[in-house]
Write a structure and sequence with these properties.
The chain is α/β, with parallel strands linked by helices. The chain contains five helices and five strands; from the N terminus they run βαβααβαβαβ.
Amino acid sequence: MSEMSPKEFKHILVGVDDSDDAQLAFRYAINRAKTDHAKLTIVSILEQDNMNVYEAMSKDFVHGQRADLEQHVLQYEKLAKQFGVEDVASIVDEGDPGETIVKDIIPAIKPDLLVIGSISKQGVRKYFGSQAAYMAKHAPISVLVVR
């Protein structure tokens, strides 16, 4: 009997923030993208809920936060390319991470796998952890939650 070969993915979406879990998710995603010769898209969401009202009203603060996040994601993009993933893109958006990824980003870019970390970190960048269950339940594609 021939063994079934595991599915190869063509386009992997990985959610990143600065948590240890996100690092694990990213490492898994770049390994998988390299193995499958898949396109890799790295996404990070600026979560408005974590800002106080004065910060949220300040365009400079939001702009600064977004610029920091964009730099952070570009570092991930650079690492993926250095690792040998040939087709790498990145997206920075604002809003509720789970909803933004499921309702906006997945339909727009049509990946076939979403890779995310599981643990929520407190503080400015607890982006994905609490959102993992939401994304696993509602995403129209396979979701891998890395622990």
